[in-house]
């Protein structure tokens, strides 16, 4: 009963936060609603009956969280992290060879996303469960499985600042350009410690309520043009 109350309270806080920011989406019914019956991995062993079919528990827990993930300041993270090595995006310059973003290995909150989406860790490997078998490549034909080859994926975990924008005339200055997401700039609303991460484009909790868990609609490439110039 106390845990049920915790979940209800958490949902109310999340919903209130989204409304205060002009957001109307919800994780319920989204791609990250793990309570939906098609997520068969969340309704079977090794997950015990008490925790099966819950939305939040594959990623978060009120107690006994993954201390390794605490370095990236993600609240109460519980899913096992990936230890994979990645083939990263290598186009460190733009088409005009003006600037050079330094692309390193994934870090920050992107490591949490990759704990499922690189396809190396079982989806059910959270809390103290270590024997899950279903991985991202086994779900929906593997469409959300990025694998460990990130060379053809938009780069992440690089610093996006005024210096980079000055070198590259095809991107906006993030310190002054409105994000169109909340009321701040690209830097304040879309970057994590000054870096582009998965959360720069995606919201795991579906706050905006648009396709692909994007932070805002990409109709007419609106999300792309937030940072990129024609």
Taken in chain order, the helices and strands follow as HHEHHEH
Overall outline: globular
Which regions have little confidence, pLDDT < 50, spanning 5+ residues?
1-22
Helix content range: 10-25%
Spatial separation of the terminal alpha carbons? 54 Å
Number of strands: 2
Q: Overall mean pLDDT score?
A: 86
> What Rg, in angstroms, do the CA atoms define?
18 Å
- Across the major sheet, the strand order is 1-2
Question: Can you describe this structure?
Answer:
The protein is mainly alpha-helical. It has one domain. It is built from five helices and two strands, in the order ααβααβα. A two-stranded antiparallel sheet has the order 1-2. The longest helix is centred in the N-terminal third of the chain and has 19 residues, at 2-20. It is globular and about 55 Å long. The termini are far apart. Residues 1-22 have low confidence and may be disordered.
How is the topology of this model organized?
Blueprint: H1 2-20, H2 110-117, E1 158-159, H3 162-167, H4 186-190, E2 195-196, H5 224-227
Antiparallel strand pairs: 1-2
In short:
The chain is mainly α.
Characteristic key phrases:
230 residues; mainly alpha; two-stranded antiparallel ribbon; 5 helices; 18% helix; 2 strands
């Amino acid at each position: 009963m106390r845990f049920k109350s915790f979940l209800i309270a958490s949902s109310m806080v999340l919903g209130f936060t989204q409304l205060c920011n002009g957001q109307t989406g919800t994780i319920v019914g989204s791609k990250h609603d793990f309570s939906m019956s098609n997520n068969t991995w969340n309704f079977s062993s090794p997950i015990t009956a008490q925790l099966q079919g819950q939305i939040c528990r594959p990623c978060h827990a009120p107690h006994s969280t993954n201390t390794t993930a605490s370095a990236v300041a993600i609240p109460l993270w519980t899913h096992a992290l990936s230890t994979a090595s990645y083939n990263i995006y290598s186009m460190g310059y733009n088409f005009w060879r003006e600037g050079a973003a330094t692309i390193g290995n994934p870090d920050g909150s992107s490591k949490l996303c990759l704990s499922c989406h690189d396809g190396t860790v079982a989806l059910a490997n959270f809390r103290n469960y270590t024997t899950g078998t279903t991985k991202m490549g086994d779900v929906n034909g593997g469409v959300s499985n990025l694998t460990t080859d990130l060379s053809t994926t938009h780069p992440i975990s690089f610093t996006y600042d005024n210096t980079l924008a000055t070198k590259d005339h095809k991107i906006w200055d993030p310190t002054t350009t409105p994000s169109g997401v909340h009321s701040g700039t690209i830097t304040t609303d879309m970057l994590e410690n000054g870096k582009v991460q998965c959360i720069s484009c995606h919201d795991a909790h579906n706050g905006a309520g648009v396709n692909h868990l994007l932070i805002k609609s990409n109709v007419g490439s609106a999300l792309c043009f937030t940072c990129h110039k024609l």
